[in-house]
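Per your request, structure below.
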């Protein structure tokens, strides 16, 4: 009895999971899930954070360097004591201690540091633009898969309705054949129609499962999670052709930023022609156990030597580049060639984007006209099928005519479903690429 109760509870839990655990998402929900779960977008955000850190690193390069060095040495035997200025011999220990605080700052380097900061700032902006471009690509990919899921689902549902009707028709034909009112040919026609509709349902079910799996993969969801895709409330809306602006295209924005980076890199390369002026400074002291008071012969105490041995120094160094094997010259030349290549790439991408927009607008207009024609065909085939069905019932039309009309009606229904979703997709595609 206890096992039976546990089994019933288990079945009830499974039932609740299947009924209440199914997740329903609309296109808006799917977009939000994409933004929250996409690993590619998260990687893009990390790249943007890395670029921010690179900017801070470049800014830190303009500040002075400050360092401290210390050393403590114990030596036995012969050694030259630089502090006391004498040669130490014999079996005796010598102790030394030094400390030095130094700084170094580049006063002028042809604007190399400033150019480096500018490049890193542009790379940060490029990372942000590239992340937006990636987001646009993923959103368009999601839109296509989401609509495909809706199409396959509606085709599957329509196929199941047609299969149910074909099954009823087959049973009716079998009954009528048994009482002699239908021939074997009529029954065979109904059976062939039933088998064909059953194949269509299997094909549509497989296509729906595959597209749904692709949607879950894109949204980084668990493949075992139950998911129901909700169709937009209004698939058919007023036709709108948005105005495309090249200045807002993320692909062209990325190329523009790359061209700016190239210009800054040319400037950075030219800075190698200029001299480098560096200011150095240091402050230090030392101690030696061999330094003695000349009058008493005793070792001078540590803190006395610490004050007496202090040194303060400063220097200004100048480094002028004379010849570097033409490295700078060809680096600048390569940077300029890369700039020209990027400009050509921009023109190519600009043409491709305009072609995509023009093609999208043409396909959208064609989809509107195509759906109108398919809708007219669907209504005509529906009327034709209903008329032939009535004639078939009274024996004025053959089963061949009936199932031919039914097949044409079913095909037009499938086409209407596909064209309706395709029209919505093409409209949303044009709206998304203009945001």
């Amino acid at each position: 009895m206890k096992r039976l109760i546990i089994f019933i509870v288990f079945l009830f839990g499974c039932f609740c999971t299947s009924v209440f655990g199914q997740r329903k998402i609309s296109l808006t929900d799917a977009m939000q899930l994409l933004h929250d779960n996409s690993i590619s977008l998260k990687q893009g955000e990390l790249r943007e954070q890395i670029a921010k850190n690179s900017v801070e690193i470049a800014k830190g390069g303009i500040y002075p360097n400050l360092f401290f060095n210390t050393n403590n040495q114990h030596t036995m035997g012969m050694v030259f004591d630089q502090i006391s200025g004498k040669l130490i011999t014999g079996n005796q220990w010598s102790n030394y201690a030094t400390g030095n605080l130094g700084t170094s700052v580049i006063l002028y380097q042809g604007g190399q540091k400033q150019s480096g900061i500018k490049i890193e700032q542009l790379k940060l902006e490029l990372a942000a633009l590239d992340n937006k471009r990636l987001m646009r690509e993923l959103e368009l990919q999601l839109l296509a898969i989401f609509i495909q899921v809706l199409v396959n689902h509606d085709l599957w549902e329509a196929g199941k309705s047609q299969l149910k009707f074909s099954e009823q028709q087959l049973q009716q034909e079998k009954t009528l054949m048994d009482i002699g009112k239908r021939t074997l040919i009529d029954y065979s026609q109904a059976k062939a129609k039933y088998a064909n509709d059953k194949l269509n349902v299997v094909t549509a079910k497989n296509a729906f499962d595959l597209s749904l799996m692709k949607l879950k993969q894109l949204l980084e969801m668990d493949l075992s999670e139950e998911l129901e895709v909700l169709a937009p409330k209004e698939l058919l809306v007023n036709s709108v052709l948005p105005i495309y602006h090249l200045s807002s295209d993320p692909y062209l924005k990325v190329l523009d930023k790359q061209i700016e980076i190239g210009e800054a890199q040319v400037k950075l390369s030219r800075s190698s022609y200029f001299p480098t002026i560096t200011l150095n400074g240091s402050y230090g002291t030392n101690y030696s156990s061999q330094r003695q008071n000349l009058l008493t012969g005793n070792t001078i105490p540590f803190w006395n030597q610490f004050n007496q041995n202090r040194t303060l120094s400063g220097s200004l160094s100048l480094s002028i580049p004379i010849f570097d094997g033409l490295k700078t010259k060809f680096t600048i030349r390569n940077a300029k060639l890369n700039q020209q290549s990027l400009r050509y790439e921009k023109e190519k991408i600009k043409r491709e984007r305009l072609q995509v927009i023009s093609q999208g607008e043409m396909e959208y207009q064609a989809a509107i006209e195509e759906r109108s024609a398919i809708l007219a065909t669907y209504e005509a085939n529906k009327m034709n099928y209903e008329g032939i069905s009535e004639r078939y019932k009274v024996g004025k039309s053959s089963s061949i005519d009936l199932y031919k009309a039914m097949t044409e009606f079913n095909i037009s229904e499938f086409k209407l479903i596909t064209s309706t979703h395709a029209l919505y997709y093409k409209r949303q595609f044009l709206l998304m690429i203009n945001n």
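The chain is about 65% helix and 15% strand.

Regards,
D.
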